[in-house]
Amino acid sequence: MKTKNLILVSIFAALTAIGAFIRIPIPYVPFTLQYLFCALAGMVLGSRLGALSQIVYVFIGLIGIPVFTEGGGPSYIFKPTFGYLIGFIVAAYVIGKITENIKTLTMQKAFFISIIGLIIVYTLGVVYLYEIYNLYLGQVKSIAWAIKYGALLCLGGDIIVCFAGSLLAIRIVPYFRKKSVLKSQSA
């Protein structure tokens, strides 16, 4: 892997960590800016490097560096919100894969791609939230409860994040394509 790609992966992992600390506390699942950097990682770096940046972020948190919204360490796997972190990895990959196949990234395309990634994050996050509460914590919660607190309460803010990320992406992605970041990682 090229040095510039290692640096970019590290930068997006760090940005995602910073996004964890820019948050609005709401019950059960805090609203953060992590998804902004996850989506941008996929669009800017492409599927492989975008997902790798999120894997690095999750790995750093799991080894004990407090980069998650509530700290870090291997026990974080048992936190109800860990599914969203898994979702970041999958979403960055899917967002990157779709972006790699688009010749010209428009605002509408970037927003639609961001929404697809958000659906992935919400799906994995809500399912994990539901399972952890019901199976591990022993607190009986309905799937409707998990959808309300795990997705619906954050939806408005996350749509704004998708819009802001799309505005950034349409300006940043052409620059990185010109510098061949996306092309070199596909080869």
From TrEMBL:
Keywords: Cell membrane, Membrane, Transmembrane, Transmembrane helix, Transport
Protein's cellular compartments: Cell membrane
Transmembrane segments: 29-46, 51-69, 81-98, 110-130, 150-173
InterPro entries: BioY
Cellular compartments per GO CC: plasma membrane
Membrane topology per record: Multi-pass membrane protein
Coiled coil regions, renumbered to chain: none
Single GO MF descriptor: biotin transmembrane transporter activity
Protein transport listed as a keyword: no
One protein family per Pfam: BioY
Highest taxon above the source species: Bacteria
Membership in a protein family: Belongs to the BioY family.
Name of the protein this chain belongs to: Biotin transporter
